[in-house]
Amino acid sequence: MENKLNINLANNYKNNSQKIRIITENWVEKNIFCPKCGNNLKKFKNNKPVADFYCKNCKEEFELKSKGGKSFGKKITSGSYKKMIERINSLNNPNFIFLLYDKKDYIIEEIFIIPKKFFVSDIIEKRNKLKKTAKRSGWIGSNILIKNIPSISKVYYIKNYEFLEKTIIMNNWQNTNIIKKDNYNARGWLYDILNCINKVDKKFNLQDIYKFENELAKKHPNNKNIKAKIRQQLQILRDNNILKFLGDGNYEIYNQY
User: Fold this and answer.
1) What architecture (CATH level 2) is domain 184-253?
2) Which DSSP state fits 33?
3) Which helix (H) or strand (E) covers residue 196, if one does?
């Protein structure tokens, strides 16, 4: 696969954001396969409000978010806040493709997919209303908080300019099945524990996660035994080969690739 965007495809367009959309969508359609079944992705003929691509075989849908620069940073701009929240709670919300490219030479630095089941309200930030003088006065946009997304959810295709093997990509997608889309409460707890793990070292101790007890108690006020719930979630992650138990309350995160 070629990881350089073809800027010549957008020669007839003046708007920069439109140019980027044309060349990144073209690259994705030619190079990215469905991480679930391995089939090539197809572009919707007329862009749907909630998706850009689909898999003809397994019916998964995908929305592309592109950014130029050296990193995604802490957040990336998205669309309507109201629609994003509705999308999270719907049954047909898309998976998200995040593509980062070098602005100078248009080389793709990294590209990964985040499965839809990892999209919870915690990663959607509400932006301020547009001013009365704006064309869309009162409209409220959103940001996707990249920093709040657990690392396990990032199914990479390109990492540090290098392509991963197809078998590794599809295996990493399978590993994300630990979180079930149809059980919001269970999904929320696992998501929260994974997010806590994101904030500690690759090797950590049970006490490191206990430090988040008060934070978790605020998010789950009906649970009166937070420490027991933490241990339960760590056991689930261990049973699903996300974590390796080292003994004496010590854990290590398995390499994803």
Assistant:
1) Orthogonal Bundle (1.10)
2) B
3) helix 184-198
Strands 108-114 and 41-48: unpaired
**Per-domain boundaries in the chain:** 7-178, 184-253
pTM of the model: 0.82
Q: What is the pLDDT along the chain (257 residues), one digit of tens a residue?
A: 778 999 888 888 888 888 999 999 999 999 999 999 999 999 988 655 557 899 999 999 999 999 999 898 899 988 889 988 887 777 677 899 999 999 989 999 999 999 888 877 788 999 999 888 888 889 999 999 988 888 888 999 999 899 999 999 999 998 887 766 555 566 678 888 988 998 888 899 999 999 999 999 998 999 999 999 999 999 989 888 888 999 999 999 876 55
Q: Topology of domain 7-178, per CATH?
A: PvuII Endonuclease; Chain A (3.40.210)
Contact indicator for 32, 97 with CB cutoff of 8 Å: yes
